[in-house]
Amino acid sequence: MFQQFRCIAIICSLIVFTKPAMSASSEHVQLVESALEHFSQTNKQHWSYTIHSIEIEEGNKTEIHAKHQPNNAPYLRWQLLQLNGQQPSPKQAKEFAQKRENEGFSISIKELVKTHSLTLVQETPNSITLSYPVELADLGSDAIGKLTGHIKIDKSNQHIEQISVHNTASFSPVALAEISEFNLDMQFMTVSDTVLIQQTQMDMRGTFSFFIDIEETSTMTFDNYQYRPQSLNKK
Q1: Kind plus residue range of the DSSP H or E element containing 95
Q2: How far apart are CA 154 and CA 202, in angstroms?
Q3: Of 169, 164, 136, nearest to 5 (Cα)?
Q4: Strand locations in 89-235, DSSP E?
Q5: How many CB atoms lie within 10 A of CB 118?
Q6: Order of strands, edge to edge, in the sheet holding 78-83?
Q7: In whole angstroms, what is the distance from residue 124 CA to residue 15 CA?
Q8: Over the stretch 133-176, which tens digit does the pLDDT of each residue have?
Q9: In terms of pTM, does the model score above 0.70?
Q10: How many whole angstroms separate alpha carbon 4 and alpha carbon 198?
Q11: Among 201, 214, 200, which residue's Cα sits nearest to residue 170?
């Protein structure tokens, strides 16, 4: 249910600050825009990596270990290594590869972080954290004004360290659905001056049709990155 929420890549750890916020300076805005642009320019399909994914939906747990190899043919780029702790059947492996074919982990980062309304929250010699109102089309118009995001930037290399989003009030993303709790946390890492996703976490709770509970959590960890630029020549 609500697969579109997982596409925001995916969350439970939120940043809490006590200092009063103030409007971001033009230098701070430029710093954030530069970090976002640096991440956006990364071609994620040039990298091989492994993922460990745990999803719990209405009490049902699905755990996946998989590998992405961009140099392979499209139907072989994703390899399912384990499904719920077991070696997958050929049918399960094929279905997983087909589902994930040509699917990387790209995130519309500039849609997630709006720089026109940044507010300075905390600045240290090493990092800067800013907040902003979140406006995501996938969450519906009712979510406008009810979601707050934070972005943390490493000042030394001007790279993104963390982005988090949480709701400040209940909202309805689709008809008959009421989300009372929505938390998203994205951790980033730098490999050879390339900013890549390290982990995404999501936690969403609410109700559907007034009596069906919505309880979804997911954690996806990315590891073993290797640069594979020759994948550009693969069709």
Answers
A1: helix 90-100
A2: 23
A3: 136
A4: 119-123, 127-133, 147-154, 159-167, 177-191, 194-208, 212-227
A5: 23
A6: 22-23, 119-123, 127-133, 147-154, 159-167, 177-191, 194-208, 212-227, 47-57, 60-68, 78-83
A7: 15
A8: 998 877 888 999 999 999 999 999 999 999 999 999 999 988 88
A9: yes
A10: 20
A11: 214
